[in-house]
Design brief:
By secondary structure, this protein is mainly β. 4% of the residues lie in helices and 48% in strands. The chain has a single domain, classed as Jelly Rolls. It has a 7-stranded antiparallel sheet, with no helix packed on it. A 7-stranded antiparallel sheet has the order 3-4-5-12-7-10-13, with no helix packed on it. β16 and β17 form a beta hairpin. The two termini are 24 Å apart. This is Pirin family protein. Belongs to the pirin family. It holds the Pfam family Pirin.
């Protein structure tokens, strides 16, 4: 997925996390993604840029795309990150410069590691389901892994943690003894929690991780805070468990990880460590160098927006 903002700001990421439990509701802003899809962008936000290594969170839908093109994101580049495609409804057809061609369906993991450079496109198939609902997430790669060769993984079956009124799919990392097959390069966790109406749970957490919860659907209380669909609650560090209460059938995304200590520059679809790296990446993409070519997409690729007039500098994770 691409940031389609034609005037993207320099997102300065890295630095300190909250040292103890907090309950900060993060604001969302709506932005057009492509085709008929509008997303709610929750990370980076005005108050926080990262949760562990998670550095970008878009929530979209559920959208009725019957008779519409649905998601249409032309070929675009990535550098220094992983993308996670996660669906509750619909399908997304992924193509990339490695030659990957994969339809990602609900509760399947589409994981792309950009490493030094990759390009890809995402679109709703021509014959697609009526509704589209999901999330697109990015994970920042640590310095030791950000120049690695690019890769794409698709996992149709994921481990699950179940209890009365709870069914959790492990997207990445480990939760309550279950571990996702998705490749990670920093200690993180991502899990989709389906809750039945009236259920209450105390979810085990790692106290050294910081966490946030995104409400995909339904009404819930997370540590006593009432959440509606599309809202994201930052929870800080130092928790061993998380109280959950579902007022209706509901679904949450739990995101967490060790606080990411490296300072980053995130601009458009690139993550680097200096403004010079970002400038070079933009030049390489515009000159059709390094990022490869996506074959099979019916349309032109995206052009990079203009760089901001101010220098791009690495900064901390919170504003």
């Amino acid at each position: 997925m691409s940031d389609l903002d034609r005037h993207p700001s320099a997102e300065r990421c890295g630095g300190e996390a909250a040292h103890g439990p907090v309950r900060d509701l993060l604001p969302a802003r709506e932005t057009a993604l492509g085709g008929s899809t509008v997303v709610r962008r929750l990370l980076p936000s005005m108050g926080r840029r990262m949760v562990g290594a998670w550095c970008f969170v878009d929530h979209y839908g559920p959208d009725d795309i019957a008779g519409e093109p649905g998601m249409q994101v032309p070929p675009h580049p990535h550098m220094g990150l992983q993308t996670v495609s996660w669906l509750h409804q619909g399908e997304v057809l992924h193509r990339d410069s490695l030659g990957s061609l994969q339809t990602v369906r609900p509760y399947e993991l589409g994981l792309m590691t950009s490493g030094r450079a990759i390009s890809h496109s995402e679109e709703s198939p021509r014959e697609h389901a009526r509704f589209l609902h999901g999330a697109q997430l990015w994970v920042a790669l640590p310095d030791a892994h950000r120049h690695r060769e690019p890769a794409f993984e698709h996992h149709a079956e994921l481990p699950r943690v179940t209890a009365a009124g709870l069914d959790a799919h492990l997207i990445l990392g480990t939760l309550d003894g279950a571990t996702s097959p998705g490749t990670v390069h920093t200690p993180i966790v991502g899990a989709d929690l389906a809750l039945t109406e009236g259920s209450r749970h105390r979810l085990p957490l790692e106290p050294e991780f910081e966490y946030a919860v995104l409400t995909m659907s339904g009404l819930t209380e997370v540590d006593g805070v009432r959440l509606e669909p599309g809202s994201m609650l930052y929870l800080g560090c130092g928790r061993r468990e998380l109280p959950l209460h579902a007022h209706t059938d509901a679904s949450l995304l739990l995101l967490g990880g060790e606080p990411f200590e490296e300072k980053l520059v995130m601009w458009w679809n690139f993550i680097g460590r200096s403004g010079e790296e970002i400038t070079q990446a933009r030049t390489d993409w515009e000159q059709s160098s390094r990022f490869g070519e996506v074959h099979g997409y019916d349309g032109a690729r995206l052009h990079a927006p203009e760089l901001p007039p101010l220098p791009l500098k690495p900064r901390g994770r919170v504003r």
